[in-house]
Design goal:
By secondary structure, the chain is α/β, with parallel strands linked by helices. Helices cover 38% and strands 23% of the residues. The protein contains 14 helices and 17 strands. The longest helix has 21 residues. It is globular and about 55 Å long. The model has no long low-confidence stretch (mean pLDDT 95). Bound molecules: iron/sulfur cluster (SF4). Iron/sulfur cluster binds next to loops.
Length: 397
């Protein structure tokens, strides 16, 4: 399945832990129509380029992420969505998602998004404790988050998810469990639960470097991970990916496509994209767009036929991914899923043998330590070892 990701790079404020490309702005200061025009110029350019190469993509998911795309005027977001559906062939069961913050989502806005064709909202609750939200630099309070969830559910949007962050300093296991339970009790059928990570280059990263950031106890974080799992599974939400839970059938198809190594068009400033290189078996191309909004918008005015390449102004870089790099990536992403990664399938289009002697030895060593299971071609990480996923995957490189 191919998908489209559209990056909307503005938020009302910058959160101190955030390493996404996002710029603080008042809603009125954003050029809503101008940004929509730029994204569509890029989309048309990429479609022409694909056509020239004889490629057609059938799109199964369109995802508006950010930043805070719920700040985007629904009419402009809807204009982008409608045109994308004209430019690209889409599957009949297309999933269309928008990331929302509680400060820019009420029932009227949720209905407006539904009216333009959005069928899935993902709401950034992050915490149901006022002091934690303050620590995270969020602008909403717990009541605001609950109001936004209730509004989304009442709007008739078919699918609603929310994000919860755990692993905050001094957060108990019981607090993490109670918050997950409270969110599940609202009737949500999908939840994303992320451990707080401190990224370099963020405000938190700087404070950590100077020893000024309180850190969570790793053992408590591991317990919280398991407590959340227990609470959500008891309510029928299956833990289908390290950070994601869903009632069966409600999994986020967009993210599943990433984890399965499918192609995606990234549109908008700072967006990444990935496409197979049809001229070289097993190779792919990844690109990233200019990260500064004005520069991106300006560059799209010069789009002719080809925007996928270094030096075109729209893309900041484009890199070749060889079969070995792609297989490593598929292992790393696939192991995040409860279904694991089928190494035979993951390497089928790459033209390489995944069962190298080094990898087979690493699989045996990990299996002996209870960190990996092998069932035919399928490798899986037992849930108790999921927190070590990155380390386990790197040993299979
Ligand atoms: S709202 Fe989300 S994207 Fe925006 S700064 Fe905060 S964490 Fe980053």
């Amino acid at each position: 399945m191919a998908s489209i990701y559209i990056h909307f790079p503005w938020c009302l404020a910058k959160c101190p832990y955030c390493d996404f490309v996002s710029y603080a702005s008042e809603r009125d200061a954003i050029d809503h129509a101008g940004y929509a025009d730029a994204v569509l110029r890029e989309a048309e350019g990429r479609a022409r380029q694909l056509a020239k190469r004889g490629r057609t993509l059938e799109i199964g998911s369109i995802f508006f992420g950010g930043g805070t795309p719920s700040l985007w005027e629904p009419a402009e977001l809807g204009r982008v969505l409608a045109r994308l559906r004209e430019i690209f062939a889409t599957k009949p069961d297309l999933e269309t998602s928008v990331e929302c913050n509680p400060t820019s989502l009420d029932e009227a806005r949720a209905r407006a998004l539904k009216d333009v064709g959005v069928d899935r909202l993902s709401i950034g609750t992050q915490s149901l404790r006022a002091e934690q939200l303050k620590f995270l630099g969020r602008l909403h309070d717990p009541e605001g988050a609950m109001r936004a969830i209730a509004a989304a559910l009442a709007s008739g949007i078919p699918r609603v998810s929310t994000d919860l962050i755990f692993g905050l300093p001094d957060q108990s296991t019981e607090d993490a469990r109670a918050q997950a339970e409270a969110l599940a009790a609202t009737g949500l059928r999908h939840l994303s639960c992320y451990q707080l990570t401190i990224e370099p280059g963020t405000q938190f990263g700087e404070r950590k470097k100077r020893g000024l950031l309180p850190m969570a106890d790793e053992a408590v974080v591991a317990d919280a991970f398991l407590a959340i799992e227990e609470a959500l599974e008891a309510r029928g939400l299956r833990h289908y990916e390290i950070s994601n839970y869903a009632v069966p059938g409600e999994e986020a198809r967009h993210n599943l496509a990433y984890w399965r190594g499918d192609e995606y068009l990234g549109l908008g400033c700072a967006a990444f994209g990935y496409a197979r290189d049809q001229h070289r078996t097993g190779h792919g191309i990844r690109w990233r767009n200019a990260i500064e909004p004005k520069r991106y918008v300006e560059a799209t005015r010069g789009i002719k036929d080809d925007v996928l390449g270094e030096g075109d102004g729209v893309s900041m870089f484009a890199e070749d991914l060889d079969p070995t790099a792609l297989l490593r990536e598929r292992i790393m992403l696939g192991l995040r899923l409860v279904e694991g990664v089928d190494l035979g399938r993951a390497s089928a289009d790459l033209g390489i043998d995944p069962w190298t002697p080094e990898r087979l030895r690493a699989i045996d060593r990990l299996a002996e330590r209870g960190r990996l299971t092998r069932d035919g071609d399928v490798l899986r990480i037992p849930r108790a070892a999921w927190l070590f996923c990155d380390d386990i995957a790197s040993r299979l490189f």
